[in-house]
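Fluoroacetyl-CoA-specific thioesterase-like domain-containing protein
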Amino acid sequence: MIKPGDTRVYSKIVTAADFARFEDGLVHAVCSTFALAQAAEWAGRLFVLEMKAEDEEGIGTMLMINHKAPAFEGDTIKITAILEKYEGNEVTCSYTATAGDRLIADGRTGQKILKKDKLAKILAPNKV
């Protein structure tokens, strides 16, 4: 049974696709905050994948990231998600992202587990 304090780990290798880029081009040839945030959300989702039923799906509700140091192309980033709370349908995790012994980022993620049909209604475009 999953309980607060449990951890899940996701690792990813930094590639050029993770670099900080905007419409005006390359900003830095290091892992972007956006790419770190996506990896952090996935690490928390690993809990959701184990908790949800076949007729349920997770949806992100909160993401906080403190980007502390660069991660370079070829670095392996290890994101460790720690389950803080699982109440009702809410899943809250804290996480750390490291590359070797360097702390790259930390923060929190939140997700809710909803019935797929309810989620489809929430995400459907409003028609006038």
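thats it. The helical segments are 33-51, 116-123. DSSP finds two helices and seven strands in the chain. bye
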